[in-house]
Design brief:
Elements: H1 6-38, E1 39-46, E2 52-55, E3 64-68, H2 70-80, E4 89-93, E5 96-100, E6 103-104, E7 109-113, E8 117-121, E9 130-131, E10 147-148, E11 152-155, E12 158-164, E13 167-170, H3 174-182, E14 193-196, E15 199-204, E16 206-209, E17 216-219, E18 222-227, E19 230-232, E20 249-259, E21 265-267, H4 272-278, E22 282-293, E23 298-302, E24 310-330, E25 338-359, E26 377-398, E27 405-417, E28 426-429, E29 431-439, E30 472-479
Parallel strand pairs: 2-4, 3-5, 4-7, 5-8, 6-11, 7-12, 8-13, 11-14, 12-15, 13-16, 14-17, 15-18, 16-19, 18-20, 19-20, 20-22, 21-23, 22-24, 23-24, 24-25, 25-26, 26-27, 26-28, 27-29
Antiparallel strand pairs: 1-30, 9-10
Length: 481
């Protein structure tokens, strides 16, 4: 055998020493460290897959629960934005507790949270910039003027995904709730996720807890999927709405579990004269397979800020437990706008104050400049194939005098009243419509058409464009050597 010359011999010895040192390191740190040293790899489903990948730790992220990662998140997003036209990018948030203030997303981008990753919202107001109020609202909801930017924020984006293996976003909202109750807020509280003026948005497979206010707020956007989200907040927490599509077109909300201090899904489109002027409705909305607990609010609310209009909402396979109302329409004189072509079927309700609630005197105006002649139009409201048990009152339906809510259709609905239910199960004023196969017997303003008309309330069978959007299997594979 040919002997190695001296330089080659030295190289071989060096390689052997390095290999032995690496083996010693790996054995000392266990199998998990060996995997992390070479690569992070996982699969997930998303509308779009990405070509480029990075981990938050590569940008100085520290997951100890106390170090601020606001700059790390923004540096990561800014760096990855360079790949928007080259297959897009994805940012991986590893296991750990990642304290952060607000940060902005970019287009053709995926934010992915590991199942053991927790984003902790900073309680330092300096990490929450103040932005202008929404033009369709004219002011903040908590206070006149601006509002604190949301924890995860994006505007004018295309193709953005926020997802994970059920990773957690913790809003640490107790401090904000206390300030709200004490009247100490100078600006409106932040939301957990807000996406504005954007298209092709996916928010999925995450757990959101203790939001300072609303949890998920897509606004002035289109082609949105919210899927597989768990939202948890104390039922007494103020305005912790679950999912609020606002002046959005073509939205799909499905397979979510929500425990909230306010409405689980609140459909909106602007407030009084500001919403009327902005004129952007929410339309083509699908809600399905939702489970909700909200003792002081509605499972599905339409309004009260609906001045731009709400049209073509289709909700089915909804479970409501221990909630104030199953479906609620909220509006008022001065709102203008419309709520029409609403279809709900296959709803199960257990322990409710009201199964159905409509009110035309909600009030709560943005300011005193609303037009008292701006009357909302509420028409073609369809409720079909529902059961409820332990209900205090079947329905409270209150239109506007001289401007009744029309085209109400309730069919094949059985409501079992609670032992201490109201003596009169239906309270109806200024409404018009029909009913069929409804127990207990509805009010005279909804005359019974007979059991043969039990399918009278239609539900559209055509598919909306958002139902044709499919997900695919994506991978994250980040090699460190």
């Amino acid at each position: 055998m040919e002997l190695l010359n001296t330089p080659r011999k030295t190289q071989v010895i060096t390689e052997v020493v390095l290999a032995l040192a690496l083996l010693v390191f790996l054995n000392a740190n266990g199998v998990d460290s060996r995997k992390a040293l070479f690569s992070d790899y996982f699969e997930y489903t998303a509308v779009s897959c990405r070509t480029h990948s990075a981990s938050l730790t590569e940008f100085g992220g520290v997951g100890d629960g106390t170090t601020s990662n606001t700059k790390a998140f923004q540096a990561a997003v800014d760096n990855l934005s360079q790949y928007a036209s080259d297959g897009g990018s994805q940012l991986f948030v590893p296991p750990g507790k990642w304290l952060t203030g607000s940060f902005n997303l970019t287009s053709h981008f995926t934010l992915y949270l590991h199942k053991d990753a927790v984003l902790l919202a900073s309680q330092d107001e300096n990490e929450w910039p103040v932005i202008d109020p929404l033009p369709s609202y004219g002011r903040g909801r908590d206070a006149a003027g601006g509002r604190f930017i949301s924890l995860i924020f994006g505007t004018n984006l295309t193709d953005v995904i926020i997802t994970g293996d059920n990773g957690t976003i913790d809003g640490q909202g107790a401090l904000w709730w206390e300030k709200f109750h004490k009247g100490e807020l100078k600006y409106t509280r932040p939301y957990l996720i807000e996406i504005m003026y954007s298209e092709n948005v996916q928010i999925s497979s995450l757990t959101l807890v203790n939001s300072p206010s609303w949890n998920i707020h897509p606004v002035y956007s289109s082609n949105i999927i919210v899927q597989g989200i768990t939202i948890l907040a104390p039922v007494t927490s103020p305005n912790t709405d679950g999912i609020n599509p606002d002046s959005c077109t073509n939205t799909r909300i499905e397979d979510c579990y929500i425990v909230s201090g306010d409405d689980c899904v609140a459909v909106k489109s602007g407030w009084d004269e500001y919403g009327i002027a902005y004129g952007m409705p929410t339309k083509q909305l699908v809600i399905r397979r939702l489970t909700c607990i909200s003792p002081f609010s509605a499972v599905i609310a339409l309004g009260s800020e609906m001045s731009g209009g709400i049209q073509d909402v289709r909700a089915e396979e909804i479970v409501a437990i221990d909630s104030e109302s199953g479906v609620r329409i909220k509006t008022a004189v001065g709102r203008g706008g419309f709520v029409k072509d609403i279809y709900v079927r296959g709803m199960t309700m257990k322990t409710m104050k009201w199964a159905f609630w409509m009110t035309g005197n909600y009030g709560s105006h943005a300011d005193n400049n609303y037009d008292p002649n701006a009357l909302p139009v509420i028409q073609n409201i369809n409720y079909h194939d529902m059961v409820a048990e332990n209900v205090t009152m079947a329905a409270r339906l209150e239109g506007i005098p001289g401007n009744p809510f029309t085209g109400i259709c309730i069919s094949n609905v059985t409501i079992e009243l609670a032992k201490k239910a109201k003596k009169v199960p239906w309270n109806c004023t200024d409404v018009a419509g029909v009913s069929s196969a409804v127990v207990p017997q509805p009010c005279e303003l909804l005359p019974d058409q007979g059991p043969e008309k039990r399918t009278a309330c239609n539900f559209p069978e055509d598919r909306l464009p958002i139902d044709n959007v499919q997900v695919q299997m994506c991978t994250y594979n980040r090699k460190y050597f």
